[in-house]
Amino acid sequence: MRRLLLLGWLTASVSKWHTIVPFLEAANKPGSHGVMLDVGANDGGSTLSVMKGLCKWSFANLCCSKKAPPPVSSLTFITFEPQPKFRSNLVDLHAASGLCDTHKYEFYPAAAWSETTNLSFVERRDSRASLLEAVKVSRKHGDRMTQVPTLDLASFINKKLNWTDLNFLKFDVEVAEYSLLPNLLTRGALCPFDYFFVEWHLLFVNESQRLEAVALRLAFDSLIEKGCPPRPRGRRVFEHDETENNKLVKVPGLTERARWQNGHGYMPTAPKSGDSKA
Ligand SMILES: *[C@@H]1O[C@H](CO)[C@@H](O)[C@H](O)[C@H]1NC(C)=O
Ligand SMILES: *[C@@H]1O[C@H](CO)[C@@H](O)[C@H](O)[C@H]1NC(C)=O
Ligand SMILES: *[C@@H]1O[C@H](CO)[C@@H](O)[C@H](O)[C@H]1NC(C)=O
Fold first, then answer.
1. What residues of the chain score a pLDDT lower than 50?
2. Which of 52, 130, 161, 261 has its CA 20 to 30 A from that of 104?
3. Does the keyword DNA-binding apply (predicted)?
């Protein structure tokens, strides 16, 4: 029934609901505690619609209503977003959504990164494409540079999240995923998650690093599955290759590799990160 209620909206909406709906269904079990970590929250739209959806979509054990006792299950929402223009939105998300005190909300006005420092940030006219300069993307006309604080995400997760909770990771960091996900993986910080929504942005990867970026994309799910201890309910990893950021993006070396795998030609020398001749 709930799935039916959601259907109209789902079809018009993005694919992150493939993991958000099962996450909320699990968190709705009496006494559960779910955590939604929204890394790259932008204007907070995704987190806000989940907060507002709890009653609308009839998650009775999570819905805050003035007419009913407090919900028996709880959620913690955590957002990360460095862009100052979204700060006032994100600070007030809890109040804007009418959440009761059963649910917690925390906002970190920082970019998720592999260490805690200050870094240059490229602000684009389309805020969803703004990103850390450290990921080495080419500058575009109209880009504005600012300094933003960064936070060591692996250390944050390892200190803050509990393995006994239901943990959901929404990860939309505009090409920083290719640097940050390997860092999180090797530091064990992806293991506590049950549900993943990862947005990939191959278009912004330097050509010389695209082959390894595609390899990471293809192996990601299985790296988590094989490298982490199992979760009680299994994991659900949903990866989103948004067409405009992935389709028709040239990957030097991929055809040569495929030819060799299929028995033709010579073993290609794979372009390496930092190899400008590739
Ligand atoms: C980042 O910059 C702010 C303001 O300039 C400064 O107060 C802070 O100490 C810096 N943080 C780090 C980790 O360097
Ligand atoms: C993890 O558990 C501790 C102790 O119960 C609690 O204080 C903390 O808020 C929990 N973390 C999250 C993200 O809910
Ligand atoms: C792409 O990679 C090459 C080699 O590492 C480097 O010289 C070049 O500056 C990179 N391009 C951008 C836009 O960062």
1. 8-12, 275-278
2. 130
3. no
